[in-house]
Amino acid sequence: MEVTPGACGITSKIYPLALPRGTEKFCELCQGPATLQCTKCRVTFYCDAEHQQADWAGIHERICPLLIPIRTQSLCSLTKADQIHVELKKVELMGICMSVAQSKLSERKYEEALPAAQFCLRCSMDVHSPSANHLIPAYLLLAEANFGVSNLALVTELLSQAEWAVLKSPECGHEIYQRLHRSLGRLQVATGNLDAALLNFANDIYHASEAYGLDSTVACRGHFLMADVFAKQGKTAIACSMFSEVAGTWHTHLTKHIETHIQNVQPSFDKSQHTEVDETLRTVLEFWQNEDRKNSGQIALVAHCLAMLWFLGGDSQKALGFGNVALQASQLIPNHDLTEPIQTLLQLVQNPQREQHPGCN
Ligand SMILES: [Zn+2]
Ligand SMILES: [Zn+2]
After folding, report:
1. Ligand 1 centre from 45 Cα, in Å?
2. Which of 31, 32, 43, 194 is a good FRET partner for 213, with 20 to 30 A between their CA atoms?
3. Fold of domain 78-172
4. In this protein, which residues make up the domain named MYND-type (predicted)?
5. Could you tell me the sign of the dihedral formed by the alpha carbons of 173, 179, 298, 108, in that order?
């Protein structure tokens, strides 16, 4: 009996009599007792239609057929060569889930990222032993998805698992330490422990600088998060200085991207960063637009960044809007050195026919 329409995958009821004696099936998402099964692969089970649909949209659509060889064969009955083949399939599956979860997270689709992140952790546990340091990226991914849906209790638990695994893995690289400290810092901010958050973000910046360079966009985001905490604590002087640094770094990066864009070189701007950069720059812009510290130079700089970002992202309306804010602010300062580049950008946005490859990517 078919229960759900094809667009969301098809399920049928599990007939307990059709299962071998003593086998109970559990829901792919919540691990509760299952009553439905995916009709396509017949190796994935759900407690109800809601969990089936969430899993289908989150990850199952991508991996449904891949699960068949993994879940239907018992490893001990296979030859050595076939066992290796199944293990390699699991690693492939893990890679798919990780990249799906990451791309959904970068689009801020936290709810949809959950099934992929959850599957990724389960698959990592299966491929590696539960204590292996290979689980750390999966813990961090699942923590980030849960952070997005405000499940802070689970975030705390996952991050302590990750911390524990990091402690036991002295070979962990700066990249992992950086991600761990960033997640811990964000959790501290969410639970109101601002001083602890500052310590985590300082570590985040240190490891980001070691892994990607001091001027990297990863280190820059760390500076932003730290500045935001100082702003929340009312430490305006240090927040001002750090926000200016953040805007300066982004201005340099985006100016380079615009130059390569004009030269028709394949753009190197990573679209997955777009949402995060937009959020970073808007927060900084609002900070400088606040009546108490209105700073035309900084408003021009940050609004110019946002205009470049949206021009590269192919949204000329937003690029024009921010470009005009930038121009107005820069014209308040006599002979401001940004006035000309802002005017050039505005012309570029308004005359896209002069370009051979408008938009980003
Ligand atoms: Zn369920
Ligand atoms: Zn399936």
Report:
1. 9
2. 194
3. 1.25.40
4. 27-64
5. positive
CB 147 within 8 A of CB 186: yes
Contacts 24+ apart (CB under 8 A), 270-273: 271/313, 271/360, 271/361, 272/102, 272/103, 272/106, 272/107, 273/106, 273/217
Please give the distance, rounded to the nearest whole angstrom, from the Cα atom of residue 143 to the centre of ligand 2.
25
Ligand that lies nearest to the alpha carbon of residue 70, given by its number in the listed order = 2
- DSSP designation for 40: T
170: which DSSP letter? T
**How far, in Å, from the CA of 7 to the mean position of ligand 2?**
13
d(CA 164, CA 185): 16
Tokens of 247: 């805007």
Closest-approaching ligand to the CA atom of 42: 2
The per-residue pLDDT for range 67-117, each reduced to its tens digit, is 888 888 766 677 888 888 888 888 889 999 999 999 999 989 999 999 999
Taking the centre of ligand 1 as the mean of its atom positions, its distance from the CA of residue 1, in whole angstroms, is 20
